[in-house]
Amino acid sequence: MWDAIVVGGGLAGWTAGIRAAQRGKKVLIVTEGVGTLYYFSGIFDYGDLESLRHLPKHPYSLFDAEAIDRGKHFIQELCPEYIETNKSQHALTVLGTARQGDLMPRSMVLPNHQEQGSFVLLVPEGLKDFFPEIVVSNLVREFPGWQVNVKRVHAENFGEWQRMGKSASGIDYAAIWRSKEGQNLLAQEIEAIKREHQGAGSRSGKIAVVLPSLVSEYFDASRTKTYVQDYSLPVIEMSSFLPSPHGRYFAEYLKHQFTDLGGELMIGARAAALNGKPMSAKQPKSCQEIIVQSMGKVLHLKAKKFILATGGLLGGGIKVGIERKLIQEDVFDLPLYVPQEWSTSQFFASQPFAQIGVETDKCLRPLDTNQGRVIWDNVHVVGRMLAHWDPWTQRCGGGVSVTSGCAAAEII
Amino acid sequence: MDVRNELTARLDACQKCNVCTAQCPVAKVNPHFPGPKGLGPDMERFRRGQFIPGETTLDDCSNCKTCEVTCPSGVKITEMILEARRAARKGPHKTMLSLKLRLRGYVLGRAEYLGKLGVLWPGMANQALKLNLVRWALDKGLAVSQKGPLPAYGRPLEVIEDKGGRAGGAFRKQVIYFPGCYTRYNEGDTGRIMIKVLEHIGYKTIVPNFHCCGLPLEANGQFDKARKNGLYNLELMRPYLEAGVPVITSCTSCGLTLKEDYPKLPAPGAQMIGAQTYDLFEFLWQLHEKRELPLDFQEVKACFGYHLPCHLKAQGIGTPALRILRLIPGVKIRNLDAGCCGLSGSYGFKAEKYDKAMKIGNPLFEAVNVGVERGDFQEMLTECGVCKVQIQHGTSIPTKHPLRILAKAYKIILE
Ligand SMILES: Cc1cc2nc3c(=O)[nH]c(=O)nc-3n(C[C@H](O)[C@H](O)[C@H](O)COP(=O)(O)OP(=O)(O)OC[C@H]3O[C@@H](n4cnc5c(N)ncnc54)[C@H](O)[C@@H]3O)c2cc1C
Ligand code: SF4
Ligand code: SF4
């Protein structure tokens, strides 16, 4: 019997699992696949906390300011490289435009627009879906006072790839930059840039090297040899794009943190239903076990608490039948809030379908949408599965997932 | 039918997110390999238009199933690849090269016959396999890598017939053991220890004269033979399955085959085999949950690293060995979870794949070495025989089946 079973291994599920394991609980995470972390830019978006917290029914309205801070501290404790400042901070997207972000790695934070200096964009040869010309033109536009130069880097590891005319992904390159050879290569390139600039007596003193996804934040010293290179110039890393190196390494890092705390991961298994009964006629039901489909057989897994972190429409937690006739939550068959209008015609406007999800009380327990009664006493819903928010227009995806994951773990 | 299953069965479920290819260990080291998305859902569209890629490209997939457990959309990627390999077998690519590779496929796929030969003269076979000349000849003649860690042969595991009469009759508590070729011919000891452990917890073990489960045959393109083996084995199990007797596996690849492939065979036992097959530790855990597992453990003061074999991960049952071993006082285990070992059955034995296999295994080797250097553990545990051979080959750190720790705790073996 576990203290808690978390269904879904995305950002919200991992957060809940690790936090609960840190609190000494015995936790099992059951997940079918890896979730949307593999799309993660490397930046936690929290959005405009003050106004969102006052939006009726928004997940943030379920938490007080301390709960939100606890989530942020949780991330910063796991990854001390993550910082937050009072001023708004910006990072570069893969297209070279500046994007606001709330909790981001030190290495991503852009210098002040008002300053002057020069950027040297390091372009790894054959990096897939990376367009240096566009990056340069955007950088020039965003930073009028800055000079922008380009330098190509050739990593011999991908020589065979390049000779075939095949591109290497950001994840492949991140693996190189995390290795000893990769870091030595970078150090040499950066030293060469520094010497060139000193030789040319460049216009201003400040030089920064810009590189797509370096991913130096998530190092697991218990499984990889760590090499800490000091580069002779500051390096600014761009945020990640699909499939995301930051997401990939962060997911691995979370997995190792979780299992090292004694947590167990059951991947490749799909939760299909739950069994439970009402404690009395008036009270909410109590869940005893979930039914999980493993290869060839059905497992009955028992726990005291259950955390639903199945990620809504994109994560696979909500299924939609043909022509939207049927829409339902897939594990516990919980009632869903479904807006009247599914989508608006303006593509960039807030999409009502984004608001689909489970309504809960302050303890994140699922509510019956009509009467507002708690349905399950020991089931807590977290992350994208919650109703009444929109990660796209409100830019608070990471914030809601981390805050709710942490909060649920505190009540296990 | 479940709406979602209906969707996933169709290739439309693929969102083209490329996450599977980003995680595929082979795509990482081999630029010629199109990767799971390329070979599975993408090619599926071509195949419907009767375009069949060359057999050798398809053969680059080691069938580790990492892509499948990764996919956020539950796409049955390896099923598509396997289907494609079946189609390619019948395809028009019959060059000299592929003739040699087919011969090798024949030899490597016959783990069972090799095993029988090997154990007839274990000493001689082991000596022969150590001879550079023999390895050179295997490399040149059959493209079996000279450097690959071919496992040694030992005293084979004996068949134990059912003397109790009708299945499920005389003994209330009995199990069928499916040892698999590796345990049977290369590591009979593990099988014998397992039978003693089962006896200690009150179960009588029957070991019918099974053939190879079929997975190595399939991996080496021998689809008809694999199917025949499956049907033969299922027929042997049928009376026991009908009597509700559980089938236990200690090899994770055999276990996966019994759970994933056998239910698809057109035979009477097929509906039962999936639900009645248990990985050894999965079986012990469900006994423990019913409070039927004896806990008369002696203390075993030791720290271990653990490698989760890909084919156990793909069973979707978590890590039951860790759950059980953590019940033993003194035992400390760290699950390294550092990816595929690279060997994948007979994959890493193939000459053109040896270097790639070693590269694939690198993160795991590094994790093992770092753990030992930090003093976290001195030995490795893993259920899969070939993972074990590969970890020892890549790191020189002693590696065992976790069963041995349990047997020690039960005072069945000393070391
Ligand atoms: C493309 C994209 C990019 C994003 N980028 C950012 C960003 O840069 N910064 C940011 O702050 N936020 C970002 N977000 C938003 C944020 O990441 C999400 O809000 C958050 O990841 C949701 O996490 P989750 O854990 O709730 O769900 P998910 O990540 O979707 O995870 C759900 C998990 O549940 C599993 N699952 C589903 N059903 C079952 C079942 N029945 N049984 C077992 N397992 C099941 C799935 O396999 C999956 O692992 C992004 C979102 C998307 C879609
Ligand atoms: S098969 Fe799955 S992981 Fe691979 S591209 Fe398609 S949806 Fe993504
Ligand atoms: S089974 Fe393994 S080797 Fe084959 S495509 Fe999938 S991840 Fe790659």
UniProtKB/TrEMBL annotation, chain A:
What GO CC annotations are associated with the protein? glycerol-3-phosphate dehydrogenase (FAD) complex
List, alphabetically, the SUPFAM superfamilies matched: FAD/NAD(P)-binding domain (SSF51905)
**Which Enzyme Commission numbers does its entry carry?**
1.1.5.3
- Organism domain of life: Bacteria
Whether Oxidoreductase counts among this entry's keywords is yes
Q: Which Pfam families does the protein's record reference?
A: FAD_binding_2 (PF00890)
Domain (FAD-dependent oxidoreductase 2 FAD-binding): give its ranges: 3-45, 338-400
What GO molecular-function term can you cite, just one?
A: glycerol-3-phosphate dehydrogenase (quinone) activity
- Keywords of this protein's UniProt record, alphabetized? Flavoprotein, FMN, Oxidoreductase
Broad enzyme group:
oxidoreductase
InterPro entries attached here?
Answer: FAD-dep_OxRdtase_2_FAD-bd (IPR003953), FAD/NAD-bd_sf (IPR036188), G3P_DH_GlpB_su (IPR009158)
The name this protein carries in UniProt is: Anaerobic glycerol-3-phosphate dehydrogenase subunit B
- What organism, scientifically named, is this protein from? Desulfosporosinus acididurans
State which gene encodes it: glpB_2
Automatic annotation (TrEMBL), chain B:
The record, for InterPro entries, names: 4Fe4S_Fe-S-bd (IPR017896), 4Fe4S_Fe_S_CS (IPR017900), Cys_rich_dom (IPR004017), G3P_DH_GlpC_su (IPR017753), Helical_ferredxn (IPR009051)
Q: What's in the GO CC field? A: glycerol-3-phosphate dehydrogenase (FAD) complex; membrane
Checking Pfam families in the record gives: CCG, Fer4_8
Per its record, what are the GO molecular function terms?
4 iron, 4 sulfur cluster binding; metal ion binding; oxidoreductase activity
Keyword Protease assigned to the entry: answer is no
Matching SUPFAM superfamilies: alpha-helical ferredoxin
Query: Where does the 4Fe-4S ferredoxin-type domain lie?
Result: 5-34, 52-81
Gene3D superfamilies xrefs? Alpha-helical ferredoxin
Q: What is this protein called?
A: Anaerobic glycerol-3-phosphate dehydrogenase subunit C
User: What gene codes for this chain?
Assistant: glpC_3
